[in-house]
Design brief:
CATH architecture of the largest domain in chain A: Sandwich
Shape of chain A: globular
CATH topology of the largest domain in chain A: Immunoglobulin-like
Largest sheet of chain B: 26 strands, antiparallel
Order of helices and strands of chain A: HEEEEHEEEEEEEEEEEEEEHEHEE
Number of helices of chain A: 4
Distance between the termini of chain A: 36 Å
Radius of gyration of chain B: 28 Å
Shape of chain B: globular
Distance between the termini of chain B: 38 Å
Radius of gyration of chain A: 23 Å
Number of domains of chain B: 2
CATH superfamily of the largest domain in chain B: TonB-dependent receptor, beta-barrel domain
Structural class of chain A: mainly beta
Structural class of chain B: mainly beta
Number of helices of chain B: 6
Oligomer: heterodimer
Strand content of chain A: 35-45%
Helix content of chain B: under 10%
Largest interface: A-B, 83 and 84 residues
C-alpha cells in the first residue's frame, strides 16, 4: 500500500471517530458544456482535429456516451495565406480504453470517433490559426509549427552504483545520451525512444525482455516522466540529453523487473526527436499533473492549461520527426 | 544557552548598517521625530516621578494594563506587562485614580515634591447581583476612547469561563473566534484567521515564547489551559513596534505568576479531560509558584467500554499539557520569572492486524525573564526563551514473517532560541517610550522521511533538509499625548533575517493617531508594515497538522504587508455600552501556495513546489458590547473580502482566499440570574468557506502521451465554490456555590443546540446511479458535530 494511501486511511479513521457523515447535494453553479478542441498539427502531415463537448462532472460515467463528438461544426484553418475548410471524417480516429462494457464487467473497449481533416499539408515555420463554430459557440487558437532538428549522435555509458532498495547491492544502469543542437531560444522537444531489443544487467543479474515500443520515454524539466521537455536549463548550448537513470523507470513508472532471466546480450534503441510548440508542452504538462494528482489527497489539484480561447483544449504543433538514430548497448560485464 | 549568545558571528552589523543607509532618508524622519520628542522632555524643569507596581491585593499578582489616571491634567499612564507604572509630573499635589478591569477603583492623594515610589494593590470586585453587575471598571472602559491603540480584541479569562463550551472544555482560541475580525476554520476547530490572513500569519506568544502549533486533538482544542492564563490580548492592526514577524495578528498570552500570599487551587472535571491548577507562595510576598496540568481521558473511557478482545483495535487518542511558573522578587527593583509549557498529543491506531499508525506531536517552551528598574523611569525586561515544536507520522506494517515488515516515518519540526531586551522609558506624562532588541536562532526541520524494508534489510533516510536561520530586530516607539484630545503612537521596527548567504532587512513604520471628539467618542487611524520570515506550507485541500514550517530563503522571499485602518469608537450610557466600527485594508506580498500538482511528500526540493503571489483583504468590523448589567455580552459583525493573485494559479486571475468569508456574526449574551445561577448563549453565523471543485469532464485523445484517450476534470475557478453557510447556537447554564474556603461550579452546556449540520469538508465519491445503473460521482459533505451536550464540574479553593 502506498504511504499516501496509509495517510488517507488514517484521515478517514480519525474522521469517523467523531464524524456524522451526511451526503448532500451540492448546489454547484450551473455547468455549461464547453467545446473541447484537440488539435496537434504535425509538419508534413494532414491536419487532424478532434472536437468534442465536455460533460457535467456528476453525470453517470458511461465512456461511450460521455465522449460527445461534435461532427457538424464549422472548422477552418488559416495559414496566413489561405483559409481551408476542414471536413469531418468518420474513420479518422479510433480509440481504445478500459471501460465497463457490461454491467460490472470491465475490459477493453474501442470507439471510432472521427475528426476534421483536409488534404492540405502542414508546413514547418508557418503560423496556423483555427476557428471552430458550433451552436453559437466559437473556439479559436493559434500555433507556429517548429522546424525539424536532427539528432547528432546517441551514446551510452554503463554506470555502477549502490541501490539502497536492494540493501546497498552493487547495481548497474545504462545512461543513454542523445545529442542535438539547441537553438538559442526557448525550445521544447519530444524525444521518442523505440526499443527493438532489451537486455541489461541490474544488481548482478541480467534482465531480458523485448519491448515493442516505448513512445516518448524521457524526462521533463521537473525530472518526471513527462513526454515533452523544455530546454530552459540548457537554452542556447549544445545539449546532451540524458535518459537517466535508464528507461527502466519509464517503462512502468517505477516498475522493477521481477522476471529475472540469465541472458547476457545487448539492447537496441531507436531515437527520434520532434520540436514541439510551447502550447503542447504546457498542455501536456497540465494533463500529466492532473493524472498524477487525481487519486492523491495530499497532492494539490491540478487544472488543465487550455491554449485556446472560447473553450477548452489545445491547438498546438510539432515538427516532423528527425532522422532515426540507432544505438546498440552491449552489456559488457 | 550557549547558542543565544552566539550573536556576534551572525548579526552582520556592517551589512545591516549598509542596508540601513539605503533607508536613511526615511530613518532620518523618525530619528528626528524621536529626538524632538525626547528633547522636549529633557528641557522640562522641577519635575518628579511617581512609580511603582500595581498588584492584585489578594494574590499580589502584577496587573498588566492597570490605569493610573490624574483627572486634573486629564492624563495618566498604564502599567506594563509586569505591573510597573511610571509617570513624571511637575511639582504639586495630585489626586490619582487607579483602576483595572474587574477591580475596585482606588483614589490616592500624592504630594509631589520629590520622586515617589508608590506600590498599589487593587481589590478584585466581588460580583454583586442586584443593581449592577461589575464587568469592567469605568476607567478601563474609557481606554477604548482615550488611548491611541486600535485593532485590539480583548477577552478576559472571566469571559472565556462564562461563554458556552464544547465537551466541558473552556477554550481560549474558540472564545477569540467570537470577536469581530477573527474567523474560525473548520467546524469545531480552534484555528483562527484574522483579517483575511492565513493561519501562519498569527504570532502566538505564551509568556513571550512562540507557539507554532497551538492545537490539540487535530485542532479541536487549543493548547492553552485557561486556568493558568492571566492576560490575553489579540492585536489585529495598529501593531506596536515591539511585535513583528507575522502579517496579520499578535496573540499575546501571559500566564499567571502564582499567588504570593496564600495557597490556592482550581480545577475541573469535564467530559473528555480533567485539569488541576495549584498556586501559592514559596516565600510569602517574595516568591510564588503556579503549576497547571490537564489530560484527556477519552481513550480510557473508550477502552472501558470495549470488549477485551477488541481493545487492541481501539485508537489511542489523548493529549496532556503542563504549565509551570516560578516568580521571585529578588529586590525592590529586580524580579525573576521562570515559566514553561509542555504539551503532547498522541494518536495511535491499529488499522488492521498488520497495519498501525502513530501520530505524536507537541510543543515545549521555556522562558526565563529578569526585570530591573533603573531609577524611576526606565524599566528593563531581559528574556531568554526556548521553543520546540515537533510532529511526526509513523506507520508500520508488521507480519508474522518479520521479513515482510515495513515502516515509514516522516517528521517535521522547529527549534528556537531567543534572546530579548525590552525597555520601557517614561520621560514625562506625555510620553511612553519603548525600545529594544531581540534575536532568534531558528532551526527548521521541514521534513525528514525514513523508510525501512525488512526483507531488503534496507533503511532509506531522506536528505537532511534542516535549515538554521537567524532573525533579529530592533525597535523604538513612543505613545505621545500631544494635546488633551489628540494623541499618537509612533514606532519603528527594523527586522533582519539571515540564512546562509541570503539576507533580508525590513523597515516597518507603525503609526496610530487618536483624535478624541469628546469625552465619549474618538476617531483613530493607523498604518503599519509587517514582514514575515517563517511560513507554513498548507495543502489547499487538507488542513492537517503536518503542515510544514519553512523559513525564507533566496527563493522564498519574506511576506510583507501594509495595513491601513480607521475607526470610530464610542462609549454610551456612562460607559455601560462600548461601540466601535473599524475598517481596514491590507495589502500582502510574497504570499506562498503550493504549485498545482505539488506533492507534499515529494522528494523534490520545497522551493520547486512553491509559487508566489500577492493578496489583499479589506473589510469592516462592528463591535457592540454591554459591559454591565445582569444581561451583558457583545455582538461582533465582520464584512470582509480576502483575495489572492498568483501568476501560476487560476490563469493569473484573482481568486478568493480559502477562508474568504463575507459575513461573520457572533452574538454572546450572559445573564446573571442571581449569585448562584447564570445563563449564557452564543450564536454564530458565517458565510461558507471557499473550495475548488471539479464541475465538468473533458475527454482528451492525448496521442502525445502515448495513451488512447483519457478523461480529465474541468475545475471551477480556484476556490470558486462556496461551502454552505455555518451557523449554530450554544447554550450554557452555570451554578456557583460558595463555601467558606471552597467554590463549586457546575456547568451544563449544549453545543449546536439545533444540531445544524455544518460543513467540515467535502469529498467526491463514486456511487451506482439508480436510474442509469451506471457509476457516477457524487459530492459528500462531512459534518462533524451535531448537538453535543456536556456537563462539567469546576472548583476553586
Amino acid at each position: 500500500m502506498k504511504v499516501n494511501t496509509y495517510i488517507f486511511t488514517l484521515l478517514i479513521i480519525l474522521t469517523t471517530l467523531v464524524a456524522c457523515e451526511q451526503t448532500i447535494d451540492l448546489e454547484l453553479p450551473a455547468y455549461e458544456n464547453d467545446l473541447v478542441l484537440y488539435g496537434v498539427l504535425i509538419a508534413g502531415e494532414q491536419p487532424q482535429i478532434v472536437v468534442t463537448e465536455s460533460t457535467g462532472y456528476f453525470e453517470p460515467l458511461n465512456n461511450r456516451d460521455r465522449v460527445k463528438v461534435i461532427n457538424n461544426a464549422q472548422v477552418t484553418l488559416n495559414d496566413g495565406e489561405a483559409t481551408y475548410e476542414l471536413w469531418f471524417d468518420d474513420n479518422m480516429t479510433n480509440y481504445t480504453f478500459y471501460a465497463e462494457i457490461q454491467n460490472g464487467e470491465w475490459g477493453r473497449d474501442s470507439l471510432s470517433l472521427g475528426g476534421y481533416t483536409n488534404n492540405m499539408t502542414i508546413e514547418a515555420g508557418k503560423t496556423y490559426s483555427i476557428e471552430i463554430k458550433h451552436a453559437g459557440r466559437t473556439i479559436t487558437g493559434e500555433t507556429t509549427v517548429p522546424k525539424k532538428i536532427n539528432i547528432n549522435s546517441a551514446s551510452y555509458e554503463i554506470e555502477e552504483f549502490n541501490d539502497p532498495f536492494y540493501g546497498g547491492s552493487t547495481c548497474y544502469q545504462d545512461k543513454k545520451e542523445v545529442n542535438f543542437d539547441d537553438a538559442d531560444e526557448e525550445n521544447f522537444y519530444q524525444l521518442v525512444a523505440n526499443v527493438d531489443r532489451w537486455s541489461f544487467k541490474y544488481c548482478d543479474q541480467f534482465v531480458d525482455g523485448t519491448i515493442i515500443e516505448i513512445d516518448s520515454c524521457s524526462r521533463g524539466k521537473n525530472d518526471r516522466f513527462y513526454p515533452i521537455l523544455s530546454d530552459e536549463t540548457f537554452n542556447g548550448t549544445n545539449y546532451t540529453y540524458q535518459l537517466y537513470p535508464g528507461f527502466i523507470d519509464c517503462i512502468g513508472g517505477g516498475y522493477r523487473p521481477d522476471t529475472l532471466i540469465e541472458l547476457r546480450g545487448y539492447s537496441i534503441y531507436k531515437f527520434a526527436l520532434h520540436s514541439v510548440s510551447k502550447e503542447l508542452f504546457d498542455f501536456n504538462n497540465s494533463l500529466a499533473m492532473q493524472r498524477n494528482s487525481e487519486d492523491n489527497p495530499f497532492q494539490e489539484p491540478s487544472t488543465i492549461k487550455s491554449t485556446v480561447e472560447g473553450g477548452v483544449g489545445v491547438f498546438a504543433s510539432k515538427s516532423a520527426p528527425s532522422d532515426t538514430v540507432v544505438l546498440r548497448v552491449d552489456e559488457l560485464y | 544557552m550557549k547558542r543565544i549568545f552566539n550573536i556576534g558571528e551572525i548579526l552582520f552589523w556592517s551589512y545591516w548598517r549598509y542596508t540601513l543607509a539605503k533607508h536613511l532618508n526615511f530613518m532620518k524622519l523618525y530619528l528626528l521625530t524621536f529626538f524632538l520628542l525626547l528633547s522636549q522632555c529633557l528641557i522640562a524643569q522641577n519635575k518628579y516621578t511617581i512609580s511603582g507596581y500595581i498588584k492584585d491585593a489578594n494574590s499580589k499578582e502584577d496587573l498588566n494594563g492597570a490605569n493610573f489616571f490624574i483627572p486634573s491634567i486629564g492624563n495618566g499612564t498604564v502599567s506594563n506587562t509586569y505591573g510597573l507604572y511610571s509617570i513624571t509630573l511637575e511639582e504639586g499635589v495630585y489626586q490619582a485614580v487607579i483602576s483595572y478591569l474587574g477591580y475596585e477603583e482606588q483614589f490616592k492623594e500624592i504630594t509631589l515634591d520629590k520622586d515617589v515610589q508608590l506600590n498599589i494593590t487593587l481589590k478584585p470586585v466581588q460580583n454583586v447581583i442586584g443593581e449592577v453587575v461589575i464587568s469592567d471598571t469605568k476607567a478601563k472602559a474609557r481606554e477604548n476612547v482615550e488611548r491611541p491603540q486600535m485593532g485590539i480584541a480583548e477577552i478576559t479569562a472571566k469571559d472565556i469561563k462564562e461563554i458556552p463550551v464544547i465537551a466541558g472544555e473552556k477554550d481560549l482560541l474558540k472564545a477569540l473566534q467570537l470577536l469581530p475580525g477573527v474567523q474560525s476554520g473548520s467546524e469545531g476547530t480552534a484555528g483562527f484567521y484574522v483579517r483575511g490572513g492565513g493561519p501562519d500569519q498569527n504570532l502566538i506568544l505564551l509568556d513571550e515564547a512562540l507557539v507554532y502549533n497551538p492545537y490539540h486533538l487535530f485542532g479541536f482544542f487549543s493548547v492553552f489551559n485557561v486556568d493558568a492564563i492571566k492576560n490575553v490580548e489579540l492585536i489585529k492592526g495598529g501593531f506596536p513596534a515591539k511585535y513583528g514577524g507575522r502579517l496579520s495578528s499578535i496573540l499575546d498570552i501571559s500566564l499567571k505568576d502564582g499567588n504570593k500570599t496564600s495557597f490556592h487551587g482550581e480545577g475541573g472535571i469535564g467530559n473528555i479531560s480533567s485539569r488541576l491548577t495549584l498556586e501559592g507562595p514559596l516565600i510569602k510576598d517574595k516568591a510564588s509558584f503556579i503549576v497547571s496540568g490537564r489530560r484527556t481521558y477519552l481513550d480510557q473511557l473508550i477502552l472501558l467500554a470495549t470488549p477485551k478482545e477488541a481493545k487492541d483495535q481501539i485508537p489511542q487518542v489523548f493529549f496532556y499539557d503542563l504549565n509551570a511558573k516560578l516568580n521571585f522578587q529578588l529586590t525592590d527593583k529586580d524580579r525573576l520569572y521562570l515559566s514553561g509549557y509542555f504539551g503532547k498529543d498522541k494518536f495511535k491506531v491499529q488499522a488492521d492486524e498488520n497495519l498501525s499508525f502513530s501520530v505524536p506531536w507537541g510543543n515545549t517552551t521555556g522562558t526565563a525573564r529578569w526585570n530591573h528598574v533603573f531609577g524611576k523611569k526606565l524599566f528593563l525586561n531581559a528574556s531568554a526563551i526556548y521553543t520546540n515544536y515537533d510532529f511526526s507520522f509513523n506507520t508500520t506494517v508488521e507480519n508474522e514473517d518479520s521479513l515482510q515488515n515495513v515502516s515509514f516515518d516522516i517528521s517535521t519540526g522547529i527549534e528556537d532560541w531567543t534572546g530579548k531586551l525590552d525597555f520601557d522609558y517614561y520621560p514625562s506624562v506625555l510620553h511612553k517610550v519603548k525600545f529594544g532588541l531581540n534575536y532568534t536562532n531558528h532551526t527548521f526541520s521541514p521534513t525528514t522521511a525514513k523508510q525501512f524494508i525488512a526483507f531488503l534489510d534496507s533503511t532509506i533516510t531522506s536528505p537532511n533538509m534542516q535549515r538554521e536561520v537567524h532573525e533579529m530586530a530592533a525597535y523604538i516607539s513612543d505613545e505621545w499625548t500631544i494635546t488633551n484630545n489628540f494623541s499618537t503612537y509612533i514606532g519603528l521596527r527594523v527586522p533582519a533575517f539571515v540564512y546562509k548567504d541570503t539576507r533580508y532587512i525590513g523597515v516597518e513604520p507603525r503609526f496610530i493617531a487618536n483624535y478624541q471628539i469628546n469625552k465619549n467618542q474618538s476617531i483613530k487611524a493607523s498604518y503599519t508594515i509587517m514582514n514575515q520570515y517563517s511560513h507554513l506550507l498548507t495543502n489547499s485541500s487538507l488542513s492537517f497538522p503536518w503542515d510544514i514550517w519553512v523559513p525564507s530563503s533566496d527563493i522564498i522571499k519574506p511576506k510583507t504587508s501594509q495595513q491601513v485602518a480607521a475607526g470610530y469608537y464610542a462609549n454610551f450610557k456612562d460607559d455601560e455600552y462600548e461601540v466601535s466600527v473599524e475598517g481596514y485594508y491590507k495589502d500582502m506580498n510574497n504570499m506562498i501556495e503550493y504549485k498545482e500538482g505539488a506533492d507534499i511528500f515529494s522528494q523534490d526540493t520545497l522551493e520547486n513546489q512553491l509559487t508566489f503571489g500577492k493578496g489583499t483583504s479589506y473589510g469592516a468590523e462592528l463591535y457592540i458590547k454591554r459591559r454591565t448589567g445582569r444581561l451583558h455580552g457583545w455582538l461582533g459583525y465582520t464584512l470582509s473580502w480576502s483575495n489572492r493573485q498568483f501568476d501560476e494559479l487560476n490563469n493569473r486571475k484573482k481568486f478568493a482566499a480559502k477562508y474568504d468569508r463575507r459575513h461573520d456574526l457572533s452574538l454572546v449574551a450572559i445573564y446573571d440570574f442571581n449569585s448562584k445561577w447564570s445563563f449564557s448563549a452564543a450564536f454564530v453565523y458565517g458565510s461558507g468557506h471557499s473550495l475548488t471543485l471539479p464541475v465538468g469532464r473533458i475527454w482528451i485523445p492525448n496521442n502525445e502521451l502515448g495513451g488512447s484517450g483519457s478523461y480529465y476534470s474541468d475545475f471551477t475557478e480556484r476556490n470558486g465554490f462556496k461551502l454552505n453557510a455555518y451557523n449554530r447556537l450554544d447554550l450554557g447554564i452555570k451554578r456557583t456555590k460558595k463555601y467558606k474556603r471552597f467554590e463549586s461550579i457546575m456547568r451544563f452546556d449544549i453545543y449546536n443546540l439545533y444540531s445544524r449540520r455544518n460543513p467540515y469538508f467535502v469529498y467526491l465519491d463514486q456511487e451506482r446511479d439508480q436510474l442509469s445503473n451506471e457509476n457516477k460521482f457524487v459530492a459528500k459533505q462531512v459534518s462533524l458535530l451535531p448537538m453535543v451536550p456536556s456537563a462539567s464540574w469546576n472548583f476553586k479553593f
